[in-house]
Write a structure and sequence with these properties.
Helices cover 43% and strands 12% of the residues. The mean pLDDT is 97. It is globular. The longest helix is centred in the first third of the chain and has 22 residues. α3 runs parallel beside α4. It has 278 residues and is of the alpha/beta class. The protein has ten helices and seven strands.
Length: 278
């Protein structure tokens, strides 16, 4: 897909996020929206996947380490064809396969259950090691939050990945600057994020994570890098695409009411129309 086509799809993914969280009356829209462009690029351009065969052995793997942003993952999966888009309306409902955190047993396209922050990268590292041992060709991607990387387990996993030269691993950090309690640099600053990953023998790329051209360049670099895992540090806007949610920590984990939902969908409709004029 072209960058413009991906931008248009990212708008649809954002619509799915807002719709799901509104329908569920709970969820995490802020971080889902900031990472929507990355979800879109991964599932529509980057990864070797097949919605008709979600468990094919040579598929690339994705681990959502910041599991509470499941609405973003679910919307990407639904729009990619892993399950009906209408299922997004069942988010967090009793009996739905779309629960508050990803469930590998019930949701097509989910490769790992996640939710406890700091643990997903370790799962991804394990998958990458397994591929190396078995001489398999698949790549492994994992998305972390910038507040999440305050967890010590993240750096144990990074140390191991760098030591083992896992060049089939791509760690993505959604650096939107806000966590549930406020700005990350006021709560427990993880900066400089890039230097930390470099210290653990990662190839590091810092980009605007809401820019498709920069995402394309970063993931291309990751594929071309040998002998090192790659860390992509994405500078993003929390709540990206919805005017009243952008850079507002209060939208980390609450659902829009009916009026807010209509405003959000109107914002996204206008964004889609603007892209159609290009």
């Amino acid at each position: 897909m072209t960058d413009l086509e991906l931008q248009k799809m990212a708008v649809e993914v954002r619509k799915g996020i807002v719709t799901a969280v509104h329908a569920g009356k709970a969820g995490h829209p802020g971080g889902s929206l900031s990472a929507a462009d990355a979800f879109t690029y991964l599932y529509f351009e980057e990864m070797n996947i097949d919605p008709k065969d979600p468990k094919k052995p040579d598929r690339d793997r994705f681990v959502l380490s910041k599991g509470h942003t499941a609405p973003g993952l679910y919307s990407a999966l639904a729009n990619r064809g892993f399950f009906p888009v209408e299922d997004l309306l069942t988010l967090r409902h009793t009996g739905s396969h779309l629960q508050g955190h990803p469930c590998v047993q019930h949701t097509p396209g989910v490769d790992a259950a996640s939710g406890s922050l700091g643990q997903g990268i370790s799962v991804a590292v394990g998958m990458a090691v397994s591929a190396k041992i078995s001489n398999d060709s698949y790549r492994v991607y994992t998305l972390l939050g910038d507040g999440e990387i305050q967890e010590g387990q993240v750096w144990e996993a990074a140390m191991f990945a760098g030591h083992r030269k896992l060049d089939n691993l791509c760690v993505i950090v959604d650096n939107n600057g806000l966590q549930i309690d406020g700005p990350i640099d006021e709560i427990c600053s993880p900066y400089p994020i890039d230097k930390k990953f470099e210290a653990f023998n990662f190839h590091v790329v810092t980009i605007d994570g809401n820019d498709m051209a920069q995402l394309r360049s970063a993931f291309t670099q990751a594929r071309q890098t040998k002998g090192q895992p790659t860390a992509i540090i994405m500078k993003t806007v929390k709540g990206k695409g919805v005017s009243f949610m952008e850079n507002q920590v209060g939208w980390h984990g609450k659902a829009p009411n009916d009026e807010e939902y209509q405003t959000a969908m109107e914002d996204l409709k206008k964004a889609g129309e603007a892209l159609c004029q290009k």
